[in-house]
Amino acid sequence: MIKRLTRGAIIAIAAVMLLLPFYKANAGIPVGTWRAHPAYNDATFSIKAFGCIFVLSDGALYLYDTADNGIYTIDKTGGLGDTDIAAMGYSNTQQALVLAYSDGNIDILYQDFTIYNFTDLKNSGTVTVNELKVTGNYAYISTNIGLVVFDVQRREIKNTFRFESSVNTSVILSDSIICSTDDGTYLGIMSDNLLDKSNWKQFCTSRYSELLLFDNELTGYTPDNKIVTINRTTAAPVNVMND
Fold first, then answer.
1. Are 198 and 192 spatial neighbours (Cβ–Cβ below 8 Å)?
2. Of 6, 172, 221, 226, which is least packed with CB atoms within 10 Å of its CB?
3. Rounded to 5 degrees, what are φ and ψ at 78?
4. How far apart are CA 219 and CA 213, in angstroms?
5. At 39, is the pLDDT very low, low, confident or very high (cuts 50, 70, 90)?
6. Mean pLDDT over all residues of the chain?
7. pTM here?
């Protein structure tokens, strides 16, 4: 299912790996028997899961196992449901890695490296995945058709919150969800019926390519490559920094 990279391949991506966070791990990974040749030139995201570091690079996936210092690849020929992974996140409650492909296909990768492929979102129409964030049992997938809430435990779509334009990013606060779309940024209170679009209130007219909580501060990344801290009450950007 997975294949260890050769020394030459490791050297080719070593410079990228040095930029990513690594953690100590205990679990070993069995080596598979297939061959993979994806590109690994642009590592964009890494996450800790199952005692390994999973790295997303050029839409492909590889992992670093500190137990044997091995770097292993995983691709469609080894069990993944598709190619071109757009985003991934880890569910602590389900101990599962959620992979969202650019076309809406979803894989759930478990600790024993079994994979469950979910195709309903992909098959529902033309879907483009922009981002994925996982909180508890739920994966919040920002797409061109809205914010899709995927239940990792039940392996089904729980809700789809639709807007007038594509959802680029979202962030989950204690009692609310903030979504940034092509038409501005909106806030919804979780206790309200958010399937009713009128319950989403405009948070601000600004657009963000990424929203996240950093040191418990609401932080946004703007389309013109600025990083800002956002006041949760006024929605005003403060502490503007250039990327």
1. no
2. 6
3. -105, 10
4. 6
5. low
6. 86
7. 0.84
